[in-house]
Amino acid sequence: MEQIITLILLAVVGFAIIMYVVLDGFDLGIGILFPFANEHDRDLMMGSIIPVWDGNETWLVLGAATLYGGFPLAYSTLLPTLYLPLFLMLLALVFRGIAFEFRHYAHKSRAVWNIAFAAGSTIAAFCQGLVLGTFVQGYTDGNGIIQVSNYNPISAFSLLTGLAVVAGYALLGSTWLIRKTEGKLQEHMYQRAQYLVVIVILFSLIVTLWTPLIDPGIKAKWFSAPTLFYLIPLPIIGAIAAWTLWYSVQTKRFERAPFWLTIIIFLCSYIGFALSMWPYIIPRAVTVWQAAAPLKSQIFILVGVAIVLPVIVAYTIYSYIVFRGKVNIEHGSHY
Fold first, then answer.
1. Shortest CA distance to 329 belongs to which of 41, 34, 20, 39?
2. How far apart are CA 301 and CA 293, in angstroms?
3. pLDDT digits (tens, 9 = 90+) for 92-107
4. Domain residue ranges of the chain, discontinuous segments joined by +
5. Which of 9, 101, 146, 253 is 20 to 30 A from 332 via CA?
6. Contact at 8 Å (CB) between 34 and 192?
């Protein structure tokens, strides 16, 4: 029973993270694309995310709260070692939120808020990539103390993953705008997506080949039987989705497809990463079972999750259904 509850809580953390990455990823991507648009298009870009952007960040809070309550050892270890990129990320998200609201009312200073929104989005995305890269570099148990192996949030690998996340979010943002807009802005996003697909594929290949060199355990999983046969469908599905995405943005057909294909690419990468790390929640140091809270604490957290999670899911689905149409000029200009 205890192991089942632990797995459920871990699934909730994983679900919350991927929901945040996908949902907040595309509106961060829109901020990353902000400098490459004119003022009229920026209004349309803002208009496409106004109804949903606040709710997207709820998933980040849910994931962090569940990790804190269900796996306190992991939370207390990861937070201090990732403090710098996480602090910068949260600071960037705060400034981004302020810029989002103030830009609507600003006139003479609108250019300043445009820069703040773009910078906040880009820095937040880059810091998330730094967290990912630093996490993959792993932890070791030295003299009874869990510590990061060669911890450096600005290592070559973490810088690469930071840039990869920025490119990935920009691709998500461009495909979201292909789905939500029309006319010149949609045409521009098709062009941006064509370049971004290639960039994301290149980053994915480099990270995929580099990661096994960092962690011998991951190398053993991906390049030896029988685990190879279980994992190989993921890169195959990802490659098919990437080629279909490139074809779709080249031919400019099926305008809803690029966004979903990009999500499939993210899902394949995310699932592959999770399976590569398993059963460690702190790479090469602490397993899921070792980091889990006592059973009573897990049950307490699970009850809270059982109440909150359906509400968040229902609200998310409802908001996206209600605001599923195209954003128009009046909406983009006047919110």
1. 41
2. 10
3. 988 888 888 888 777 7
4. 2-200+291-334
5. 253
6. no
